[in-house]
Amino acid sequence: MFIDQLFNGLSHGSILLLIAIGLAITFGLMGVINMAHGELMMVGAYTTYVTQQWFANDMPHSAGLYFVVAIPLSFLIAALLGWGLEKSLIRHLYRRPLDSLLATWGISLILQQTARLIFGAPNVAVVPPSWLDGGIRLFGAVFPYKRLFILCLVLAIVFFLYLYLMKTRAGRRIQAVTMNRSMAACLGIATQKVDAYSFAIGSGLAGVAGCALTLLGPIGPTIGTYYIVDAFMVVILGGVGKLAGTLLGAFGIGLISTFVEYSTSATMAKVIVFVLIIAFLQWKPSGLLNVRTRSLD
Amino acid sequence: MVNQRWGYWLFFAALFLAPFYLTEFRLSLLGKFLCLAIVAVGISLIWGYTGILSLGHGVYFGLGAYCMAMYLKLEASRGHLPDFMEWSGVRELPWFWKPFSYPMVAIAAAIALPTLLAALLSYFTFKNRIKGVYFSLLSQAVVVVLVTLFIGKQEWTGGTNGLTNFSTVFGFSLSSPLTQIVLYWLTTICLALIFVAARRLTSGRLGKVLIAIRDAENRVRFLGFNPTVYKVFVYSLSAAFAGVAGALFVLQVGLISPEMMGIIPSIEMVLWVAVGGRHSLMGAIVGAIVMNTAKSFLSENYPDLWLLLLGALFVVVVLFVPKGLAGIYESLVAVRIKAKRGHEREARVDVS
To answer: Which of A280, B58, B200, B318 lies in disulfide reach of B266, CB 3.0 to 4.6 Å?
Structure first.
């Protein structure tokens, strides 16, 4: 029983991490409140849906392989959309976080309605690839492959993101701009370019999250609003500006809410976890891990 | 300045006389919009003046509405259990429902509960200097939590259907036109009082401190003020306004459900204020009325278009008209005054 709950908690945490990891870049590193993040997930989810339809119609023999194509495809499409969004709207609002919150909310409404016009308001189901059916039996508990796959996907994303940010030139530029924008600009980094591609990467990760969410159930135009608040809570709890914080925050919330849910109900779990987050912020107002700084604002 | 005051008088007089020149249907719509305008005044206070963006006002509005609705429901059930409780197999009235059979308790709770919740949330966040977008996101999380709670505890709250099917208030039938007109007048009076109170508040010393907090909170702190106290006060006050609005709303509309206090209504409230002009209390009122009129017209005739338009409006207002309708009005007035001064100067040149 305990192992069951532990696995459920880890699985819940991995889903939270998946939806929050893109935000950890756009919100955590860049400080942009992108309320359309959930809709970028939706774009990824619908991309997966379209890919699956395409494979099922044109290549029925290798229909199960669609998922391998869908992951990079949803990354690309969501990233492109995010890039366009940054270029056209968000760059004008870097100094006005509250306004960017409202404007991106507007974008999210537009994207939702567009999805509704194209795919219809009812949810659509994506048939998961057959190689992800079933699960492993261990210690008397069943671990479904789908959940294990998501867990592995998330860990792989975190690993590569870490490598990218720490070991590549482009990633280090992102870090430099986050730490001290004007100094980075003086040293010859094109900060606006860096902004654009960091935002695109964050958006692309949202797309991948949407793609993975299709494994868990049907998707609809409002799938984003369902997850967005949780995603922001993860980043706030984890501490803004540190990827490791987001990691801890996601698994922390996932485990705690699963265990609370087990002993009460899903509704009460949500309430209790929220109260715990507020209580935790009393103790550490800037989250689990934070960037040490001497500045006041 | 004198002109402006006359303008306000005229505006409220026109609202007050509305029952004489509007049809019953339009009056009921206007009454609903005026309730929402009360919320807008509160949002303008916290957002336009103090710089706190709350995405949680739907909850305060909803709490006020639910408190009033509980009383109405008990009165409509005439001593029996409310119908939805019987359906979900509740045998006895829960203890926290009991006080709501007294209307005065219900009205007091409709104001006190939202205020208390807002005070708790804002105290614990502002005390730790959590501000800006973090507060906005936390207030949005409160919405999610409360809506889930209200839907989940179906046997106590009526679940997704909410509370409806009321018959009387203080023994007067809610469906009679006369009751509705009296309620409309009550709403207008409340709006006018709240508007005057908010104006008094912002034109005095307190208003200056609030604006200072918005512009440079740390400087205010260094000058020896405690911004937390001011922020908690003004945030709770605006929640109280929302509670009043909710109570009046449910009296006129006859329905409150979790859907009306969710994330989307909460953020729409902010948009009314943004469209009207966040820095202007009158702008907020006008914004709420204009936006809701547009909504009730467009969402009935072109439901698909409405959401696209709403989304575009968020973007356009933020990017191009951050001061909203009030800002447009002010710049028009400024142009006129400038033109007038220009004429005077020319005239003077002629004389000399």
So the answer is: B58
Residue B297 lies in a domain: yes
- Residue B323: closest C-alpha in chain A: A99
| Residue B46 belongs to some domain of the structure | yes
In angstroms, the CA B132 to CA A297 distance is 11
The rounded distance, in Å, linking the Cα atoms of B37 and B285 is 5
Cβ burial, residue B14 (10 Å; 0-12/13-18/19+): exposed
Long-range contacts at B148-154 (CB < 8 A, ≥ 24 apart) = B148/A267, B148/A270, B148/A271, B149/A267, B149/A270, B149/A271, B150/B62, B150/B66, B150/B258, B150/B261, B151/A267, B151/B258, B152/A265, B152/A266, B152/A267, B152/A268, B153/A267, B154/B84, B154/B88
Distance CA A109, CA B175 (A): 36
What are A262-296's pLDDT values in tens digits? Answer: 888 878 888 888 888 888 887 887 777 766 666 66
How far apart (Å, rounded) are the C-alpha atoms in residues A85 and A97? 15
Q: What is the pLDDT of residues B63-86, one digit of tens each?
A: 999 999 999 988 888 877 888 888
Angle, alpha carbons B297-B302-B305 (nearest 5°): 110
Does residue A140 carry a pLDDT above 90?
no
Q: How many residues does chain B have?
A: 352
CA distance B124 to chain A (A): 7
In a domain, B314, yes or no: yes
ipTM: 0.83
* B334-349: pLDDT as tens digits: 888 888 887 776 666 5
In the chain, the amino acid numbered B87 is W
Q: Which helix (H) or strand (E) holds B172?
A: strand B172-173
> Which residue of chain A comes nearest to B144, CA vs CA?
A229
The verdict on a CB contact (< 8 Å) between B124 and A282 is: yes
How many angstroms away from the CA of B170 is the closest CA of chain A?
35
Most A-contacting residue of B126, B139, B314 (CB-CB within 10 A), to test interface: B314
A233 vs B137: CB contact, 8 Å cut-off?
Answer: yes
Query: Is B311–A113 a contact, with Cβ atoms under 8 angstroms apart?
Result: yes
- Tell me the average pLDDT across B194-203: 93
Residue at A207 is within a domain: yes
Distance from CA of A133 to the nearest CA of B (A): 32
Q: Is residue A65 part of a domain?
A: yes
Does B345 fall in a domain? Answer: no
Interchain proximity B319–A92, CB inside 8 Å:
yes
Residues of chain B with Cβ-Cβ distance to A278 below 8 Å are 121, 124-125, 138
Q: Which two tokens stand for residue A236?
A: 């706030």
Q: Which of 210-229 (A) contact B at CB < 8 A?
A: 225, 229
Which is nearest to B316 in space by CA: A63, A220, A106? A106
The two three-digit tokens of residue A263, written as one number: 């002993």
Q: Could you report how far apart the first and last alpha carbons of chain A are, in Å? A: 47
Give the range of the structural domain holding residue B288, as residue numbers without chain letter.
2-321
In a domain, A78, yes or no: yes
